[in-house]
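Q: Could you write out the predicted structure for this multi-component system? I'm mainly interested in how the pieces pack against one another.
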Amino acid sequence: MGWAIALHGGAGDIPRHLPPERRQPREAALQNCLSMGVAAIKANKSPLDVVELVVRELENVPCFNAGRGSVLTNSGTVEMEACIMDGNTKRCGAVSGLTTVVNPVSLARLVMEKTPHIYLSFQGAEAFAREQGVQTVDTSNFITSENVERLKQAKEANRIQIDYTQPVIMASKGEYEETNPNLDSQIG
Amino acid sequence: TVGCVVVDGNGSLATATSTGGLVNKMVGRIGDTPIIGAGTYANRFCAVSATGKGEEIMRATVARDVAALMEFKGMSLEVAADYVIQHCTPKGTAGLVAVSATGEVTMLFNTTGMFRACATEDGYSETGIW
């Protein structure tokens, strides 16, 4: 038996020809977060502390779909979600519908530790964040130009997209094509 | 979506996941991440964080199923996670990272790729996309 750590920055239809300028920052962020996590484990931080630390760092990287860089709703707004769970005790906390909280995972931990509940959402979660004094910013700080463009593409194609979805382009027309009858991206 | 799972040298487990959801999702839509047992779950057997299309991950109760297969069928982490990803979720919709109480680690997906990294006490380390 020994320690182990794994982390992810999202799954999807990641193109194999991903340009270096899009690939390298993500690889560097993964490596940085892994190093932070390993160092925390070696410093005898609890598993709960380590996962919170690592996910906070991932939330702060704008090229991943969490925190700054979160994708947009059909109204162009941000609604972030997070969850944390302790395997020993099964204590857990979750939040959703956040629009101003810088690190949703830490608010999820506060839900776990400071309330008798498991899950807070939308206005209640935002009010709890204010009450707990967690860092908040104007919601515009989470929105990146890349995600504004992604929303535009998704709306033009009338579909939803998971973290990494390539636009389907009709080569002959240069238009977005919906290939699935249920108007959803089934290929990731 | 981003996530992290950890087991320490005593076999204690934890998981965390955070996300913005789906591009062009309806206002008010809840995904799998905050639903305990869907995108995120940990018990004394394993810790799991999932990513992908939330609606499919919720239907398959991905994270809890991995733990249940280990607890009730005695599967290893690798076999349980592989079963859930390959047989319980539609192709192109899900991925997960997981660790077990005995220090196993797995990172599986049925999408084209998943940004991922892991390390273990014995010195193994991996970073990958596809």
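A: Regarding packing and overall arrangement: Chain A touches chain B through 90 residues (CB under 8 Å).
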